[in-house]
From TrEMBL:
Gene3D superfamilies (alphabetical): 1.10.1660.10
Name of the protein in question: MerR family DNA-binding transcriptional regulator
Pfam families, sorted: MerR_1 (PF13411)
PROSITE patterns: HTH_MERR_2
Record organism: Nocardiopsis eucommiae
Top-level taxonomy: Bacteria, Bacillati, Actinomycetota, Actinomycetes, Streptosporangiales
Coiled-coil residues: none
């Protein structure tokens, strides 16, 4: 019997693979810190069928950055706003680079 293809999930940064406990441990924070990031709308965990929070690697990357900023004394709401702006800038730069590569100067 063929096995379901699950290998792609390991490569997917957006796949919600981590429970709140595992995510908190990986980030070096508490589950309440992760919930606070959700309340500040930095990350919104997906829910398992049982209603448990699940986090992706991408969300953990953002949470780890938030933890760095908070550890440096930045209020959590400000840290979340900084990270959102950093993420938007990174995306804009990526799109700009793609557009430049697609339409080289003559």
């Amino acid at each position: 019997m063929p096995r379901p293809e699950t290998g792609h999930r390991f490569d997917d940064d957006d796949y919600p693979a981590y429970t709140v406990g595992a995510a908190a441990e990986m980030v070096g924070a508490t589950p309440s810190f992760l919930r606070a990031l959700g309340q500040a709308r930095l990350i919104e965990p997906l829910r398992s069928e049982g209603g448990h929070r699940r986090y992706s690697r991408y969300q953990l990357k953002l949470a780890a950055r938030a933890r760095e900023l908070v550890d440096e004394g930045t209020p959590i709401e400000s840290a979340c706003r900084i990270i959102i702006l950093e993420d938007q800038l990174e995306e804009a730069l990526r799109i700009n680079e793609e557009l430049r590569a697609a339409d080289p100067p003559s």
